[in-house]
Amino acid sequence: MELRFQAGGPESWSADAVIVFLSEDEKLEKAYPELLDAAPWMSIAPGMRDFHGKKGEMGLLYGPPAHPLSRAVVVGLGKLDALTYAETLEEIRKGAGAAAVRCRELGVDTLALPVSGLARFNADVERTIEEIVCAAMLGLWRNKAFKSKEPEDADPRWLALLFCDANVPDFPRLAARRGETHAEAVILARNLANTPANSLTPEDMAEEARKLARRHDMNCEVLEREDIVSLGMGAFAAVAAGSVNDPRLIILEHAPAGHADEAPLIVVGKGITFDSGGISIKPDDNMGEMKDDMTGAGAVLGAMRAIARLGLKCNVIGVLACAENMPDGKAQRPGDIVRAANGKTIEVVSTDAEGRMVLADAVWYACQMGAKKVVDIATLTGAVIIALGNETSGIVANDDELVEQIKLAGRMAGENYWQLPSLPECKEAIKSDVADLLNSAGRAGGCITGGLFIGEFVDKDIPWAHLDIGGTSTATKTDGFKVKGGTAFGTMTLIKLAGML
Ligand code: BES
Ligand code: MN
Ligand code: ZN
Question: pTM of whole model > 0.90?
Answer without folding.
Answer: yes
